[in-house]
Amino acid sequence: MKILSRIYVALIILFLYAPVAVMIIFSFNSSRSVWVMNGFSTRWYEGLLSNTAMMTALEHTLIVAVLSAVISTVLGTAAAVGITAIRNKISKKIVMSVTQIPMMNADIVTGISLMLLFIFAGKLLGLNESLGFATVLIAHITFNLPYVILSVIPRLNGTDPHLPEAAMDLGCTPVKAFFKVILPSISTGIVTGFIMAFTLSLDDFVISYFTCGHYQTLPIVIYSMTKKTVKPDAYALSTLIFITVFVLLILYNVLQSKSEKRALNKTFTEQ
To answer: 45-84 burial, b if ≥16 CB within 10 A, otherwise e?
Structure first.
């Protein structure tokens, strides 16, 4: 049974990552062929710098990803602190359920509803263009927030509630106690939430497609290429993005495991 289970896992991994491996291999192909490897070359990576449209789209994507991750991390951390402070169990469950709706909702529903909202608001404000950078940023913050909240709340629940009280007894104000005591203890959850928000924003296509207007992100530009022919420099850029996301996910898992070990050590110490 162990051998069969290992073979099964190996086949699943092969099925999931074989397309990515093919893309990485052919990003170093010296020709445009996607069938024959004519030789090793980095010409497509060098050609990225001269591809103005793709570089502009990459810049847009990184700006939105970084800003949405930072803003959603700040707002999500504040929301997690507020939710944790709710004493009524029914109220807390209701708030948590509402928080998780954007995660459970289909992306196409979220994208269309946000598009209609932005167009409606734009008409009320008399704007010529309702969709653009601001609408993409707001949309990304919207779907990133639940992930940050759910990353921070477990860390808050694992923090000793008497620590801020002890800090205030020693002369700290409530705000100082939060930054000196609570914030360091939940920093792992904040970092993991930021990484998750950044990777989700970097990867998003559906919601961005409905809310971008003329402000196109990289997934939208690559999608528009599929109507004609995807150039090999897209393989090179996708490879770089895959490696970046892969490194971030490794960092996310390392931080997550460290946080879980700290929680277990704390539980054993208390017992």
So the answer is: beeeeebeebeebbebbeebbebbbebbbeebbebbbebb
For residue 209, the surrounding DSSP H or E stretch is helix 206-211
9-46 tens-digit pLDDT: 888 888 888 888 888 888 888 777 666 677 787 878 87
Single out the residue of 28, 21, 30 nearest to residue 242, CA to CA.
21
pTM of the model: 0.80
Residue 222 CB neighbours (<10 A): 18
Q: How many CB atoms within 10 Å of residue 241? A: 18
Among residues 65, 255, 81, 257, the alpha carbon closest in space to that of 152 is found at 81
3-state helix, strand, coil in the chain (%, to 5): 80, 0, 20
What's the mean per-residue pLDDT of the chain?
83
CB atoms within 10 A of CB 154: 18
Q: What is the dihedral of CA 89, 91, 92, 93, to 10 degrees?
A: 90
Burial class (CB in 10 A: 0-12, 13-18, 19+), 112: middle
